[in-house]
Every structure is written in structure tokens, then in C-alpha cells.
Amino acid sequence: MTTWPVQTNATGGGAGAAGSAQQAANTFVPKIWSDEVLIQREKNLIAANFFKRMNHKGKKGDTIVVPFISDMHAFAKVTTASVTIQSQKEGLINIVLDKHFEASKLYEDFFMVQQRYDLRGEYTKKAGYALSLLLDSYLLALPAATVVIDGTTGAITFTESVPAAGNLPANYRVIGSDGITAWDNTSAGNAADISDAGLRRMIQTLDDNNVPADDRALFIPPSQKNALLGIDKFTLYQNIGRTKELATGMFGEIYGIKVMVTTNCPTVLAADGTTSVRQCVLAHKDALCSAIQMDVRVQAQYKQEYLATLVTSDMIYGVKGLRLDADDTTTSNHRASHAVVAYVPA
Predict the structure, then answer these.
(1) What is the CATH classification number for the domain harbouring 220?
(2) From 7, 27, 223, 283, which residue has the greatest number of CB atoms within 10 Å?
(3) Which residue stretches of 155-309 are H helix?
(4) What is the pLDDT of residue 170?
(5) Rounded to an integer, what distance in angstroms lies between the CA atom of residue 320 and that of residue 39?
(6) Does residue 115 form part of some domain?
(7) Taking the CB of residue 60, how many other CB atoms lie within 10 A of it?
(8) Residue 97 counted as domain residue
């Protein structure tokens, strides 16, 4: 694109005068605006659609209490002896409905009268997307990260969670290359790409916990899509005529497990403060849960003091890891972890 020079004196001639004349002519050339606006690309939202979802819409209260029913055991019946009476030690888990988020925008009359696009409609879609994105991010962070929201910009970042009650135990936080070596955050950390052996070992971890084989999914960032494409078993499996890659974010399957690619996988820093690593999640759908008390709601109010319309979208919900505990030997209620987190390069 040509940049015309600025005329610095009234009597300048030559090229300067020609440039000035061209600028004057450009004053009367109309600008042609597109009939469409360029919408910011949006991430695929997949976690909220996959993991367990409780509908609590319109109901009162701030906590949902979920009881766990434990297993029973079979005993040999001894002749003339009484049967064995079993007494289970049941457990409860609370889902606190403590998340209320909003996305608001003010539309001034002066601007809305003069502009030609349906900006209110487009930005309302964006508001709904922002709220849904946050829910997706909360779910994928539940096993091993904490969501941090910038109070000024609304930007979402993650910090690594210290294993504790309600967090994924340390022995379920591994590196992708072998699926069993514990994640070590020392210095730059020991994150490694997912390998065939690593994936099979993570699958075994869930199998050892009696996690149902169906309804499992592996959530990976783009860097691990690249790694998986280098595994012959995966690419060969993809080339046998499968036609189910229509689900949002669906990349394919390997060993009967859905593989979902999403940039929503948490990014955390290693101890050196500069090395970024990503957290992949292999989980059963019952590992995590969202409880929606109020789905995305849109309200508009005319603000006469501003001569503008305020449009607000908001949402109320709670998220919880239902089955992220270590092996439970006291209650036998199958809360043993239904998820494994693999640390991989960003």
C-alpha cells in the first residue's frame, strides 16, 4: 500500500505537490464497507458436553448433596448358620453452586443508530460463548489445576493445584511418555509427549480401578495431536473408513477411546517460571460433573442516563470432581480415580 508524504510547506512543488494533490483527491473517494463483520474465531467447547451434567435449573439452594452407594459382597452360606449381615460405610459429596459469571456490553443510541450491522446480536452470541468457555475451562482444570480469572481483562489462566482432598492424587499425575512416571515440577519439569506405551499405561490405570471401558475420552492440546499422528497404530486406525469425526473437537479414536483436541487444556508453568507444560486428561465421563442452576440468561435494560441499552448475559453453576480420589479401601463406593492427567510439552 502506498503511503503519501505529508505536505510541510505551502509552496512546495514537485513530488510533494503531486502527493498533496493525490491526498486531496482521496478525500472524495468513498470507502466501501463489507456487508459482513469478521468474527473472532472461537474454540471448540467439548468438556461440558462430555462430562456428567446435573440439571438443577430453577431449584433453590446453594449445594447439591450426592450420596454414593457402595458395593456389596457375596458370602458362602453355611448350613444352619445365619446369613452375613452387611453394613456399608457410605459417603456423600457436595457440589457447591458458587460460580456466577456475567458478560455485559453497553450499546449507545448514537452509535447504534449510525452503524449498519447487527452488532447486538453478534456480541450477545460472543457473551454466551465466553460463559460457556469458562465452564469448559473449569472442568478440564478440575483434576490438577486451578482456574485464575483476571479481574480486569477477564483472561483465563491456570495454576497447578497441589494434590489434596478433592484433587487428583499425585500417583495419577504422570508424564505422557510412559504413563506411570510421576510429574516432577523441579526446574523445567519432566513433561514428555504422549507415546503409545504411555497411553496404554494410563488406560491400565483406569482399568485397575474398575473404571467402565465405555464413555472414556482423552483431551489433548494441539501439540499432542501432532505427537499422536506420529504413532502408526493411531494413523492406521484412522484410515479404516471411520466416519464419526463429526462431533465438535473429535479427532478420532484409539483403543476405543475418543480423542478430543482442544486448546482449553490447562497450560501451567514449571518451577523455573518459564517452561510451559500442558495437562492432558484421560477420564471417564463420571469423573467430573457440572451442575447448572441457571443456564445462560440474557437480559436487556434501557439506561436513560446513558442513552444506551445495557445487555447482560449471566450463568450460575457449580463444578466438582466426583471420582478423583485415591483407591478407597474404607467405603468401597468406587470413588477411586476415574481420571489420569498427563503432563506434556506445550
Answers:
(1) 3.90.1690
(2) 283
(3) 196-208, 222-228, 232-238
(4) 86
(5) 33
(6) yes
(7) 6
(8) yes
Q: What does the pLDDT read at residue 243?
A: 43
Name which of 284, 345, 324 is nearest 172 in CA terms: 324
Q: Detail the DSSP E strand segments found in the chain.
A: 52-55, 63-68, 91-96, 99-108, 145-149, 156-160, 173-175, 216-220, 250-254, 257-261, 267-269, 276-284, 288-303, 308-321, 339-345
Q: What is the pLDDT of residue 179?
A: 94
How far apart are the C-alpha atoms of 158 and 145, rounded to whole Å? 6
The reply to whether 41 falls in a domain is no
Dump the DSSP string for 153-193. T--EEEEEPPP-TTSPPGGGEEETTTS-SBP--STT-----
Q: List residues bridging with 311 in a β-sheet.
A: 105, 300
Residues 148 and 182: their CA atoms lie apart, in Å, by 25
In a domain, 141, yes or no: yes
Go through 268-299 and write b for each residue having 16 or more CB atoms within 10 A of its CB, e for each that does not. Answer: bbbeeeebebbbbbbbbbbbbbbbbbeebeee
Residues shown for the chain: 346
Q: Give residue 2's pLDDT.
A: 44
Distance from C-alpha of 265 to C-alpha of 341, rounded to nearest angstrom: 11
Residues in contact with 203: Cβ distance below 8 Å, sequence separation at least 6, in sequence order: 255, 257, 282
pLDDT digits (tens, 9 = 90+) for 179-196: 999 999 999 999 999 999
**pLDDT score, position 327:** 56
Number of folded domains that form the chain: 1
How far is Cα of residue 104 from the mean position of the Cα atoms in its chain? 22
For 216-246, what is each residue's pLDDT tens digit? 999 999 999 989 888 777 766 555 554 444 3
Joined together, the cell numbers standing for residue 188 give 523445567
- Which residues of the chain are under the pLDDT cut of 70? 1-44, 89, 164-166, 235-250, 326-335
pLDDT at res. 29: 63
- Which domain, by its residues, includes 187? 47-70+89-345
Residue for grid cell 473408513? 241
CB 47 within 8 A of CB 219: yes
